[in-house]
Amino acid sequence: MFAYFTEMRIICYLLSFFTLSITLHGQSPLSPRIANYTIDLSLDVEQKQVNANQEVIWKNISTAPVSELQFHLYYNAFKNSESTFMKEGSLGGGLSKDGIEDCNWGWVEVLSLIDSAGVELINGASYIQPEDNNDQDQTVLRVPLASAVQPGESARFRMKWHSQIPKTMPRTGYNMDYYFMVQWFPKLGVYEPAGMRLAEEDAWNCHQYHAQGEYYSDFGNYDVSINVPSDFVVGASGELAEKIEAGETTTWRYVVEDVIDFGWTASPKFEELHRQWKGVDIKLLTYPEHVDCAPRYFDAVVAAFEYLDEHIGVYPYPTLTIVDPPIHGLFTGGMEYPTFISSVSFCFLPEGIRTPETLVVHEFVHQYFMQMVATHEVEEPWLDEGFTTYFEGKILDGYLGADQSTINWLGFKIGNEAFNRAEFFNSPNPQIAPASTKSYEYTEGGYGDIAYNKTALWLNTLEGLIGDATMSEIMKTYFETWKFKHPCGQDFIDIVNAVVRKNHGDALGENMDWFFDQALYGTDFCDYAVASISNKAVDSAVGYLDNFEDCITDQNTQEKYQSKVIIHRLEGMKLPVEVEVFFEDGISEMKYWDGKTRGHTFAFLSNKKVVKAVLDPAQKLPIDKNWINNSFVVEPNKSGVRYYFSKFFLATQRALESLMVFI
Amino acid sequence: MKEVFSTYLSGIRLLFFKWKVWLAVFGFNIIFAFIIARPFGALLDKVGANNEASLEGLKNFDANFIVDLINNFGTEISLVAGQATFFVVLYLILNIFLSGGFIESYVHVFQRHTFGEFLSNCAKHFWRMIRLALYFIIAQIVVAAVLFTIYSKLGLSPFELESETILVRNTKIMLAIFAVIMIWVDMVNEYAKIKVVIDTDRKFILPILIDVKFFCLRHFFSILFLFLLCMLTFLAILGVYAALNDVIVMSSSTTIIFGLLLGQVYMIFRVGVRLLFTSSAVDYLRKNDWGAKHSVFPKKESA
User: Fold this and answer.
1) Which of A632, A643, A650 sits opposite B58 (nearest CB)?
2) CA distances (Å), A568 to each of A82, A461, A527, B52, in order?
3) Do A662 and B136 touch (CB under 8 A)?
4) Looking at residue A588, what is its pLDDT?
């Protein structure tokens, strides 16, 4: 009986959901809606379990019948110590001693999977391990079908599953009465026809759950009913369509269209705050001790909305939910799911430490890069994390100031782009892997430094080379071309090549592959330096000049100088550079060098001396690892050196005096 | 309270009366700071020999310059830091050595000491002074370790905290307890140093420490008030310096020199306040503990 009512309810929801979709848009859907989910779940807060009925409607977009399904069962990454996620463990995954004793593991078990003909498929299902053959890893479930799904056909599957929610695992889980439920339900992989992205043949792309790298999924509609104790507040992807109280429990029904995933959170202690932006309801779910931080979140995210709306494209969803977890939910901070993101703040955090702003902007940018432009976070993390870091810098430096958008505290100031540059160059090994590396292949470290920071650095460098306007056009074109699709890195490169050629012709070469070969696929550093300046007085000519009779012996020094500015390329990366050469009369001249050889001389014959040369004066090449050697002055102004020495000297005096307290 | 005020004022008088001590302590500070900072200055000279990279720092805090300096000259900076560590340790030992001589000159205020006698006094008290310093360093480490252990037992793991407000509250409580204990330790240390110099016959430090502890307990509020007066003096000087320092923007050679000079004036007063703790303590001990039973400057007081 219960099953019957549940099924009827699902059908009613589906009908109303699709009616709502048509009413809201009255036009073709934004996305291809390949994988659509209706989930009816109840949260057991005593057992920390989820019991769910799930319906999946999946469309075969390939040209051949598909005879199996592959599901991500992310929660099985937390089932034991032997999963691939736990073995990789670089995110601090794994249980504490107490956690092991208390058996705080998590898992998900599919109890039933029935196709539209009523055939139970779960008995033939098996776990597979496409990457590492670790037979203890149960994060991918392969389900052979009783009848293949024909090309262009949609198939419906009804599932029943339950899961044990892990305690304090990276990204998801519970702690105390706080729940952050992401990567939580059996989710289909992406069936990629040959030629799509990197696929050479029709196949499921369904990676195991790794400690690094997140997800890749198809677009679809979600209708999720979440039954929780009535004192809980629930936030989720999408809009709250319905809230039905039934005694001790309440069902919160959320719907969202044209997204690649669905996340939700629940806690009895959430405080809910709202701000509107151009019809988008921005909801903040926060804890009482963090309420003071709310304006910081709202102001920053509105700045991001405005920037992306102007520079990239329209945010098409009616909601955005920001979750500010409590301190015991720190493991869930800084995550991105469709229309649902999390950040981190503390009640003691000074205003000048911009962690909440940075995280909320970063995660919001993911709504564009990896949510709408649905790249593969595991295979090509640079396409989402790198792009997001790049735009995070643009937005925050514009909103809070380029010299203080990350830290402005106790006299120490640093902007976001500068901070990311610093993080990259001061990382343990900035050359450990190219930025094109898959997330789980950063086995010796460097994932954050390279996928995030190096990519942002070379995107900024690309912008410096091709100009702001061309870069902006590239990003807009890339977004418009690939929104609600699955592009790969080459798709972005193709757009760069096309737009640069359109705007600059051959000025930067036949295409920009030379740049990507170095910045994306290479590991070389970039360092250009002004090595020296020389000014040599040119003497007048002597000897027989005009005829064979009059020998001129007086060699006079003319008021002319042969000046040389020597530039060195100290590292392997080759980029074209600008050099501004200053003469003694204050006039400057801009020179260009393709930067390909190890050194280059700019020579001048003039009646004035060269006094200064500045390489890359507009700092268009932030990937240059040393900006200190980018200028050369014949008679340097030592004020700067004196300033730093004075500061250091005074600090040393104070430190020595302070130490006397201890003796 | 009146007695404490007069002791505080006598301490200031003693500080100025023994201005050579003050000057010497400041001199040591400046010499060692220069020895430590000079290699860094040489590195800066090398880094900025022919470029303008450091000039941006005159206008704004230039994170890029500092980042590139650390990134590209890390080996040299490590070397400078290593040298600095050696000289810091040497500075501390030398200060312990000199403290015996300085306190001796405060105690025997009207006695003229030749440089040789001064050095002889330093040497006479050195081993006991260094033992005393070690005891106090150990005491401070023990206090810090015990409090940190208690603090961590109260819960540091974010995953076990209901809210960070608990952490904030625990931190405030622990810092307050730490501050109170450290004030007590510092007070005892200050008087112990003087007692070590006065009680030349007692080779062992422990009996002196016990005496001083009881003395400090007997005179707790007076000594605490005196300590707080000195602390207030320090805070006032710090406040004035901070305000003036904000006015001076070091953006040219002239303003850099000005800023440097202001920094030296601040350091002179800061060193002076440290000596004021000692000089006022000498006066207090003179009035209340040893035979004299009067201030360092009895005539002035009786007048």
Assistant:
1) A643
2) 52, 19, 8, 18
3) yes
4) 97
**Preferred mutation among B25, B46, B68 to probe A, highest tally of A CBs within 10 A:** B68
Domain ranges of chain B: 2-302
CA distance B233 to chain A (A): 16
Mean of the pLDDT values across residues A144-160? 97
Nearest residue, CB atoms, A657 vs list B56, B57, B270: B270
- Does B70 touch chain A if contact means CB atoms closer than 8 Å? yes
Query: pLDDT band at residue A554, thresholds of 50, 70 and 90?
Result: confident
Among A644, A659, A662, the strongest candidate for a mutation testing the B interface, having the largest count of B CBs within 10 A, is A644
User: Chain centroid to CA A337: how far?
Assistant: 12
What pLDDT digit, counting tens, does each position of B152-174 carry? 988 888 888 999 999 999 999 99
Give the predicted TM-score (pTM) of the model.
0.91
pLDDT of A97: 77
B210 to A331, A399, B130, B184, B204: CA distances (angstroms):
51, 61, 18, 14, 11
Q: What is the largest distance, in Å, between two alpha-carbon atoms of chain A?
A: 124
A645 closest CB neighbour out of B41, B64, B137: B41
A426/chain B closest Cα distance in angstroms: 6
Nearest-by-CA chain B residue for A329: B159
CA dihedral A447, A452, A454, A456 (to 10 degrees): 170
Q: Cα–Cα distance between A402 and A386 in angstroms, integer?
A: 19
CATH 1.10.510.10 fits A31-267, yes or no: no
| pLDDT band (50, 70, 90) for residue A31 | very high
What are the two backbone dihedrals, phi and then psi, of residue A545, each rounded to the nearest 5 degrees?
Answer: -100, -55
Residues of A in contact with B60 (CB under 8 A): 403, 413
- Class of the domain covering A528-636: mainly beta
In chain A, domain spans = 31-267, 392-518, 528-636
- The token duo for A564 is 């040389």
Contacts of B103 in chain A (CB under 8 A): none
> Chain-wide mean pLDDT for chain A?
93
- pLDDT of res. A17: 47
pLDDT in tens, A308-361: 999 999 999 999 999 999 999 999 999 999 999 999 999 999 999 999 999 999
Tell me, yes or no, if B95 comes closer than 8 A to chain A by beta carbon: yes
Report helix angle A468-482 to A489-504, nearest 10: 140
Residue B95 has its nearest CB partner, among A330, A639, A660, at A660
Q: What is the pLDDT of residues A425-455, one digit of tens each?
A: 999 999 999 999 999 999 999 999 999 999 9
A49-63, A227-241, A545-559: lowest mean pLDDT where? A545-559
Which of A148, A134, A159 minimizes the C-alpha distance to A67? Answer: A148
Question: Does A642 touch chain B if contact means CB atoms closer than 8 Å?
Answer: yes
Residue with tokens 């890359």: A616
By the 8 A CB rule, do A232 and A47 touch?
no
Q: Residue B203: its pLDDT value, please?
A: 77
Q: Comparing A16-20, A30-34, A499-503, which segment has the lowest mean pLDDT? A: A16-20
How much is the pLDDT for B299?
54
CA A85 vs CA A71, A121, A188, A330, B30: distances in Å: 17, 27, 19, 19, 56
Residues in B touching A354 (Cβ below 8 Å): none
ipTM above 0.90, yes or no: yes
Fold agreement between A31-267 and A528-636: yes
CATH code of A392-518, in short, is 1.10.390
Q: Please give the pLDDT value at position A595.
A: 96
Spell out which residues of chain B touch residue A637, defining contact as CB-CB under 8 Å.
Answer: 52, 55
- Closest by CA to A235, choosing from A180, A288, A280, A183, is A180
Strand positions, DSSP E, A183-279: 187-188, 190-192, 203-205, 220-229, 233-236, 239-246, 249-259, 264-267, 271-277
Residue B226 parent element (H or E)? helix B220-247
